[in-house]
TrEMBL record:
Its EC number is 3.1.3.25. GO terms for molecular function: inositol monophosphate 1-phosphatase activity; metal ion binding. Keywords: Hydrolase, Magnesium, Metal-binding. One of its GO terms (biological process) is phosphatidylinositol phosphate biosynthetic process. Pathway: Polyol metabolism; myo-inositol biosynthesis; myo-inositol from D-glucose 6-phosphate: step 2/2. It holds the Pfam family Inositol_P. The keyword Transport does not apply. Its cofactor is Mg(2+). This is Inositol-1-monophosphatase. It comes from Ceratodon purpureus. Mg(2+) binds at residues 73, 98, 100-101, 226. Belongs to the inositol monophosphatase superfamily.
Amino acid sequence: SLSVQDEGNAVEALAMDLALKAGAMIKDKSGHALQVDTKESRFDLVTEVDKACEDFLRNQVQEKFPDHFYLGEETATEKELERLRSGLKDSEWTWIVDPIDGTLNFVAGMPLSVVSIGVALGQNMEIGVVYNPFNDELFYARRGQGAYLNGIPINVLPHDTELEDSTVSVGFPSKPEWRLRMLEAIGKVAPSARSVRALGTAALHMSYVGAGRIGCFFEHNLKPWDVAAARLIVEEAGGRVTDMNGNFLQLTAGSILASNGGVLHDRIVQLVSD
Ligand code: IPD
Ligand code: CA
Ligand code: CA
Ligand code: CA
């Protein structure tokens, strides 16, 4: 059997290859989905392309690594989620996949959606890949080895960057009960920020934090697949990812804050924590 290092290399190669392939499927069909269905509410959509991408990714992973655990947005069962909640075993590889992050953009034909593939070894994210097929940007990180955009190392903004000099990015949850809390949080931060962006994909926002394009990102009630890959990209780029109270973020996710890790992080926590 393979050493952990060799298996990691094989996982990394597959994750990148699959992100590029699924990305091509998304780009091709953007704005042309044939079947748009609702999930938990009429604000929460899924298309045949989300499902086809996920089936493709799941089948490929299970074919190449039959003993790995796979968790993806469109196929996750309650039992699989429970396995994540109850804690992953130390030597276990777990793929945490969002086939399309930014489904609403995808449905509308706005070129802002990504494939997000995160792979954990035990409880730690080991590999993170976020691919935006619309401008061919591949964000990538491996634990302990830095973060990259199309092969070039990326870094978060300097740690002394203040809120007044940072663009802040936010998400808008689909669940009505989380929307008011999100607007409250935005209301506390926005008056002092350089500006505010909401691009409709958590994984892309976080990758942009890693690349130093924006200072931070926060959103309530995110799911594991929204953040698994990109949290490693932020951390390996020198940033910090916590919950919105500044505490350790579990793989199960929830309310999250990703930032350059300096004074900005503490300031946002101070403003939005409960
Ligand atoms: C959504 C996006 C969006 C965020 C939502 C997520 P999806 O994921 O990341 O930016 O605001 O909370 O659910 O459904 O497009 O994969
Ligand atoms: Ca979704
Ligand atoms: Ca998502
Ligand atoms: Ca999705």
